[in-house]
Amino acid sequence: MTGMPSEESTSEDGRHEAVGDEFARHARSAWGTTLVRALSTAEYALLVLISSVLLVLAAGILVAAVISVVESQGSWQEQFISLIEELLLVLIVLEIYITVMHHLRGGRLRLEPFIIVAVIAVVRHILSIVIRLTFPGAPPVSHDQLVELSINSGAVVVLVAALALARWSSRRPPDR
Known about the structure:
The protein is mostly helical. It is about 80% helix and about 0% strand. Helix 1 (about 5-70) packs antiparallel against helix 2 (about 75-105), helix 2 (about 75-105) runs antiparallel to helix 3 (about 110-135) and helix 3 packs antiparallel against helix 4. The longest helix has about 60 residues, at about 5-70. About 5% of the residues are buried.
C-alpha cells in the first residue's frame, strides 16, 4: 500500500463529484429560475401600478384643465392657451401610458413612443411661446425668444427625422 488511491476509488470519487456538481448546478438553476420569476412578477406588478397612476394622472389633468377654464376670469385667449397646453400634457401622459400597456401585453419596448412624447413636449413649448407673443399688449419679441424658438424648431426637425428613421428601420426586413 503506497498511499495512492486505487483506480476504483478515484472513479467513485469522480462520480460523487459529478453528482454533487449536477445537484449544485440544478439547485442554482432552480433558485435562479425562482428569482427570475419573482423579479418578473414584481416588474409586472410595478408596471400595472405605474399604468394605473398614469391613467389617473391623465384624467386628473383633464378634469383640472376643464375646471380651470370654467372658473377662470381671464380672457378667452388665456383660457384657450391654458386648455391647449393642458391637453398636450394629457397627450404626453397618455402616450407613456400606451407604451407601458404595450409592454405589459408582451410587446417589446419601442423607441417611437418616446420620440413622439418628445415631439409633443417641444411643440407644446413652442406653441406656448408663440401664443403668448401674439397676445395684444405682449412685450416685443426679444432676441432670446427668437433663439429659443429656433432651437426648439430645430429640435422638432431632428426628432421627426429620428421618428421617420425609427419607423423606416422597423419595417426593413432583417439582413441575413
